[in-house]
Amino acid sequence: MKPATTYPDRRDDVRLLVVDPLTPGESLRETRTTALPDFFAPGDLLVVNDAATVPASLRGRDAAGNEIEARLIAARAEDRFGAVLFGAGDWHQRTEDRPPPPALSIGARLRFGALDAEIVARAAASPRLVELRFAVGGDALWAALYRAGRPVQYSYLAHDLPLWAVQTVYAARPWAFEMPSAGRPLSWEILLALRRKGVRWASLTHAAGLSSTGDPAIDAALPLAERFDIPAATVRAVAETRARGGRVVAVGTTVVRALEGAAARAGGELRAGAGETDLVITPAFRPRVVDGILSGAHAAHESHFSLLAAFAGPERLAAAAAHAERAGFLTHELGDSMLVLPGALAPAARAAA
Amino acid sequence: MNNPIAGKGVLLTGGSRGLGRALGLALARAGARVVLVARHADELDEVVAAIRAAGGEAHAVVADVADKDATTAIAGQAAAAVGPIDVLVNNASTLGPVPLRLLLDTDCEDLERALAVNLVGPFRLTKAIAGPMVLRGGGTIVNVTSDAATEAYERWGAYGASKAALEQLGRVWAAELAGTGVRVVNVDPGEMDTRMHADAIPDADRATLADPARVAAEIVALLQAEPGPAPGARVAIRTAPGAGASTEAAVAGASP
Fold first, then answer.
1. For a disulfide at B213, which of A26, A319, A325, B22, Cβ 3.0-4.6 Å?
2. Mean pLDDT, to the nearest integer, of B172-192?
3. ipTM for the predicted complex
4. Which residue spans of chain A are classified as CATH 3.40.1780.10?
């Protein structure tokens, strides 16, 4: 499958592949995201990640004048962020083709425009995975990041991505270092149509980190632990939905990781509050909270694909991937969508649609 | 006492002068966590320092609401500082060049600038802030308007047209957001003793103008009222004139 190289004219009108892992007979249907509400039933719950996307890419130089790009991956303290360092070049090159940054030790100073930082820690996995302490913290650091930073860019894009283009329509706290892109096709037209149908919404905040860095040592360690915050209202909505036989549908991997990660920490019981999870969802994972997922379209070799297998099962997912491939679905941040939802194509759901 | 403002995240544009400054102080005094937006860092820092000195919480975001690229940055910095925003006050506005000109003498660029600051900026910021409010099922958006939006005052054409359009956007926002828990109201603060007013009407008798602090107190009371104004409502605040007298001072001044 090919990546989408630009954003669609309308965010809510891209191709949608609906996968029903439960219903015998028709298990795949191709439509458009504008039809999303047709596949939900009254009593279902849609859970979204309301993290806004941070301008996480900072370009600057080290003390010797070498070009550096730092991509922030995690907030650690008021003046500290985890980051991955890249060398010269820019997003037009694939990250795996970029020269590595110069060897920088703890104490090395970096300058991004007017923003100074120091390397205060390095990971054992890779010297490029560091912790940066900035010269300012709090409000001043956020102001500097919004001034100096840009959203992480992708080599397959036809043009630069501005910051507004990597936000969902419900983005609130700037926690995500890459766009929680599964929610990108959701417009208020769609969200309000879902509500009119009796589908509830709930939100959580999950600090989506980088999906890949081009450094095999770092990529092998991805996804790193990511922090989340689940409001009490969302925990209540999940409990009420399950008690009434509704389906809990996660918008994106980050929502699955937050809900299932939080439940795994508390013996299967979903609890409200902030936490951190390093849960990796494999095809063998049995979700305890989430019934279905709205996701970007993913090719079989992508890591997100194995997460989808936990919901669709390997056979139906393989059939879905083959269909998406044949039909020319577009992948990645600005691409087409896939809904994996048990019962989505059941005759009763169709009749209600 | 029920205080629905305490602990709430408030984003207030035009926070460095006039009504915005007074509203920032009043909201923080009521316990809100206030993010103030304005173009000039020094003026903004003074207001933030005054709020903090009084024991309140305030954060500064230096930005021009007319700058399209600033919208996401304003929303992001505000949410980083105080979390999801519960109240947005679109207060920043420009008169355009003063002395005010007849429409026939108004440069097209000056009309465009008035629309950019007074109409398009609030539209963009509302778009960025109302979404997460709808998702969470609650929030209030206040558009600060003017009687120049409804009366045909000579020389107030550009400003008045921008405020009339802002009010109409407010009504349509309210209609579209009905049932979501998010409320949009237009508030006309009346004629106040501010630098903007002095720029527009330099020879006005200041004794006839309202004190922005008293108007700010009325707006805070409006935000605290249950159930408060209906969505899409136009609320005209008309406090008694009294330059330099805050609500507290006015009460104290009533004693002999």
1. B22
2. 96
3. 0.93
4. 2-53+160-352
